[in-house]
Recover the amino acids of this structure.
C-alpha cells in the first residue's frame, strides 16, 4: 500500500502571515493558559503560577531535538525530520512508549527565543520540516516561537504531531501556521479512551479534530518524495481489539477515502501496560492481518502498512 503523489501546490506558510494575524493569534492562545483551556481536559489551572493536568506550566519544556529518520517516509525523507520532543502530555496512556517524557516530564526548560533558534538550526542542518511531537499543551508558546523563527528565515513545513486529543477552537487558530498534521486516532469508543488514556470523550473530540485538520490542509501534497502539506493519520493497533480499529478506519474514510493512513503494528507492553493483563502482550499476526483487511475494506486509498 503506497501513497498517491499529488501535484505540488504552494501552501500558506507562517512567513506569509501579517503582524496583525500573528499578534491576534498569540494573544488568543496566551489567554487560554489561565484558566487553562488549551486542551480538551480544560483543567482551569493557572499555568503562570502552577501546572495543569498535563504537567506543564507556562515555561516550554523539551526532552530532545534531533534529525529523526524514523517517521513516515515523506516526513523523514533522506535528511531527517527536524523533530522537537516536548515534555508532558494531556493524555495518560498506560502503554506509552515514550513515558519518561510524556508522563515523568523529563526534559529541560527552554525559552521561546531559544526554541525559535533551535528551529533555524535544524533547518540549517538539512531538516525537511520542523516536527513538534506532543505539542498540544504548549501550543501558545510554540506559535510564538514559530512567529520568531519565521522572522529569522524559517521556510520549511511545520508538522503538528499529536495524540489527536485537540480542541477544534484551538486548531482553528493554527490554520495557515501548520502545514502538516500528524495526529493519532487511538480509539473509537470514549470508554476505552478514558480507561486506558485518561481522556474523557476522546472518540468524539478526536474525530472532530481530525475533520478540522483535514479541512485546513487536505490530502497529502508532495514535492518529490517529501510532504509539504496535508494530513497523515496514525492508528496503533492494540491487542484484543481494544482500539476498535475497524470503526476508527471507517470514521476516517467517512471524512475522505483519500486521507493518508499509517497503520502501525509496533505495539509492545510498556510503562503500566505490563501490569494490565489485556495489554501485557504484543499483537498477533492474526490481529494485525484483521486490521489490514479492515483498512482495505473501508476504501481508504493511501498510506502504509508496517511489518509486524
Amino acid at each position: 500500500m503506497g501513497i498517491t503523489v499529488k501535484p505540488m501546490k504552494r501552501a500558506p506558510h507562517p512567513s506569509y502571515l501579517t503582524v496583525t494575524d500573528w499578534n491576534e493569534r498569540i494573544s488568543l492562545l496566551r489567554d487560554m493558559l489561565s484558566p487553562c483551556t488549551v486542551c480538551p481536559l480544560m483543567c482551569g489551572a493557572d499555568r503562570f503560577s502552577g501546572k495543569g493536568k498535563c504537567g506543564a506550566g507556562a515555561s516550554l519544556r523539551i526532552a530532545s531535538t534531533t534529525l529523526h529518520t524514523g517517521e513516515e517516509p515523506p516526513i523523514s525523507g533522506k535528511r531527517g525530520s527536524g523533530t522537537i520532543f516536548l515534555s508532558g502530555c494531556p493524555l495518560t496512556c498506560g502503554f506509552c512508549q515514550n513515558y519518561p517524557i510524556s508522563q515523568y516530564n523529563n526534559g529541560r526548560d527552554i525559552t521561546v527565543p531559544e526554541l525559535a533558534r533551535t528551529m533555524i538550526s535544524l533547518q540549517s542542518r538539512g531538516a525537511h520540516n520542523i516536527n513538534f511531537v506532543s505539542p498540544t499543551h504548549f501550543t501558545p508558546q510554540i506559535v510564538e516561537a514559530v512567529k520568531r523563527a519565521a522572522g529569522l528565515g524559517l521556510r520549511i513545513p511545520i508538522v503538528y504531531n499529536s495524540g489527536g486529543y485537540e480542541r477544534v477552537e484551538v486548531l482553528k487558530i493554527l490554520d495557515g501556521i501548520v502545514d502538516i498534521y500528524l495526529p493519532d486516532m487511538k480509539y473509537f469508543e470514549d470508554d476505552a479512551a478514558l480507561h486506558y488514556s485518561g481522556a474523557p470523550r476522546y472518540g468524539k473530540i478526536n474525530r472532530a479534530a481530525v475533520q478540522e485538520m483535514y479541512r485546513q490542509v487536505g490530502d497529502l501534497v508532495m514535492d518529490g518524495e517529501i510532504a509539504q502539506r496535508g494530513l497523515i493519520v496514525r492508528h496503533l493497533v492494540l491487542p484484543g481489539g481494544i482500539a476498535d480499529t475497524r470503526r476508527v478506519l471507517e470514521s476516517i474514510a467517512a471524512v475522505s477515502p483519500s486521507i493518508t493512513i499509517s497503520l502501525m503494528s509496533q505495539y509492545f507492553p510498556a510503562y503500566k501496560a505490563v501490569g494490565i493483563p489485556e495489554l501485557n502482550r504484543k499483537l498477533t499476526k492474526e490481529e494485525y492481518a484483521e486490521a489490514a483487511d479492515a483498512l482495505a475494506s473501508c476504501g481508504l486509498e493511501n498510506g502504509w502498512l508496517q511489518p509486524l
